[in-house]
Amino acid sequence: MSDVSDAAVVRLLVTDYAVVDAVGKVNIIGGGLTGVGINPTTQGTVPFALFVSVAVPPRLYNAECAVEIFLADAAGDLVSIPGPAQGMPQQPLRVGQAVRFEEPRFNQPVNAPTRYLYAKTQWVMSFATGLPLVPGQGYTWRVNIDDTSRDEWSERFVVMGPPVGPVLG
Q: Class of 3-159 per CATH?
């Protein structure tokens, strides 16, 4: 466990739509989804987004770490999706990035305390055409920091399919 993974505060939110603007403000529509529908035309999910925020206390300004965001199925296995071109092999749905946590800065002149705010980094992963996930199944977005993960660094959701018809006979 690294100092960063020990102290990190991680937030995940499944949303209909999310974007982080140039100054770091998050704009979210339909946040807090626990169920994602199916697009009957594509048989994939409807469009949705994942917002992730990782923050560390001021004592860790300028600290560096490796952050990985990935999707697991209900059994905890990494989800793979088709490659970017037809005929390419399946690829795991995960993103990794090296992160440096810098002290938050404000446009000058401003009177604000120094070394007070948590340093943070934020991501939005937007799936504008949905994902090829199985209806009626549960999935979990997870975050690893320096190869460490915690249960609270996860967000579960289900893919809602059409209702199961009656069983006759």
A: mainly beta
